[in-house]
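It is worth pausing here to work through a concrete case rather than discussing structure prediction in the abstract. The textbook approach is simple: state the sequence, then state the predicted structure, then interpret. We follow exactly that order.
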Amino acid sequence: MKKIVFLTGTRADFSKIKSLIEILEKQDEFEVFVFVTGMHLQKEYGYTLIEIERCNFENIHSFENHTHETTMDLTLAKTIEGFSNYVKTIQPDLIIVHGDRVETLAGAIVGSLNNILVAHIEGGEISGTVDELIRHSVSKLSHIHFVSNENAANRLKQMGEMDSSIFTIGSPDIDIMFSSDLPLIEEAKNYYQIPFDNYAIVMFHPVTTEANEMQSYADDFIAALVNDTHNYVVIYPNNDLGSSGIIEGYKILKDNSRFRIFPSLRFEYFLTLLKNSQFIIGNSSAGIREAPYYGIPIINIGTRQQNRAVHTSIINVDYNLNSISHALNNIDLHHVQKTKSDFGQGNSAQLFMKSLENEAIWKINHQKQFRDN
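Step two, the predicted structure:
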């Protein structure tokens, strides 16, 4: 029996690995462990450890790694220490990490320095912020790559990764997006007590490389929302440097009847709300990845997604108040066609499991080789 440990630090990365955990737990040849840390254990962000526990996974271990939003390096160090101790206890055959968070980097460091296979989900993608530096670093520390599409696979090959280590499975959240098990919109609204017939989604995250300007950017963004006439479902930012200023700014929306504010939403409920929204505004990857496939208009603000915002239906605007307000004034006239997914066909979990059932993947050399072009 192979022991596999998944590491999750945010609601976003958990949405990407949930279906992968579920399918492996059904297989007798795998023993699955879930290491939960990061935002999941922070009450101000909804304490989403509860949502993971509701999945009834066999082995869940939580570890509080947070130091302060200005000390991402210390959070990295603390996560390495906690995860290293856990790994030494369970002695896994494979560590699976996702994306571009400091928790992801910690998992890859612990695995590679302890001679344990590391698999990275959604490597080879670009964003243009410090997240991209972390993502590429994780890829170089990983032995196995489960990528979303051929573009990502080609970037990994440019980075010297071996063809035999790259598996194109699509983006696992697509599995959930087009699932027949998503809740109905009435259920989602009742669950979160959302009274609006029509509404838009707000997701605005800090950009760590623009930390000095983020407060003024957030102030302009919130002012544009207040001056607007749409109803909004607002979801807290992630816990990167600058998040506290955004959350503080949202306090002025608390008593405004046009706004409902949430630290976090369960992913399936979020997808239903997104699918039935008028538009999404902010700088979340949800506007780049999920929204186009539901045919939802997107107002993408600033630089956070600048290298990912490739769909023609996306309205890209600057951070300033006038640009955002102009986009809001015209958004109701903006209609988009649903985009065909270039991040898989909704069978990522099956492709993932098939890869792990192949004996060859377990024989990948722990001593990484660099592939010259």
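Step three, interpretation. The chain has a mean pLDDT of 93. The CA atoms of residues 23 and 209 lie 37 Å apart.
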